[in-house]
TrEMBL record:
PROSITE patterns: PROKAR_LIPOPROTEIN (PS51257). It comes from Algoriphagus machipongonensis. Pfam families: DUF2911 (PF11138). This is DUF2911 domain-containing protein. Residues 29-50 are annotated as: Disordered.
Length: 190
């Protein structure tokens, strides 16, 4: 019994030590959370599976990484996702985009780079779409810091009759379109 306690204590200490070890920017760029999840098989076990969409907008490379939650008979807008509060626009880690070149988002320039994508849902007005320089956030909006916002734009949501069970963020006209439940949020990017 004493040996077993020592083993568990050692595992705990090792886990704590390695989880606190800061990673260099080089190692952060070479291994991402989805790559690690794929290697360990965690992607298949996630309630909100990881999605990566890779495409072109105006001939320029654009990539989106997000976790796709399901409606599951839940009230989404104003309940699971509150109004007037920053939402990570997905589940699990922060949703993020990778831009190979500068893009125009709703008429505003967003420089090439990686950005987390947040939204502020609103009940009866335009939604705020946010691109934040802190893109590698393990806990989504819980780590969000407005000081790192690079771009904020307002976008008009469209409410559709048909409901979409899983959150989807697709690269399509007019740039990217977010769909979940009865929401369609078209974000103009070129």
């Amino acid at each position: 019994m004493k040996t077993q306690n020592i083993v568990w204590y050692s595992v705990f200490i090792a886990t704590f030590f390695f989880s606190c070890d800061p990673k260099s920017s080089e190692s952060l760029e070479s291994s991402s959370s989805e790559e690690l999840a794929m290697e360990t098989g965690e992607v298949d076990n996630r309630p909100s599976p990881l999605e990566v969409k890779d495409g072109q907008i105006g001939g320029k490379s654009f990539k989106i990484h997000y976790s796709s939650p399901a409606v599951k008979d839940r009230a989404i807008w104003g309940d699971l996702v509150p109004y007037n509060v920053v939402w990570r626009t997905g589940a699990n880690e922060a949703t993020y985009v990778e831009l190979a070149e500068d893009f125009s988002v709703e008429g505003e320039i967003l420089p090439a780079g990686k950005y987390s994508l947040f939204t502020i849902p609103k009940e009866s007005t335009d939604w705020t779409v946010i691109f934040n320089s802190e893109w590698d956030l393990e806990h989504g909006h819980f780590q969000y810091d407005e000081e790192n916002d690079v771009l904020r734009v307002d976008v008009s949501p469209v409410w559709e009759e048909n409901s979409q069970e899983r959150l989807a963020i697709d690269i399509e006209s007019p740039g990217i379109v977010i769909r979940w439940e009865k929401l369609k949020l078209p974000i103009s990017i070129n």
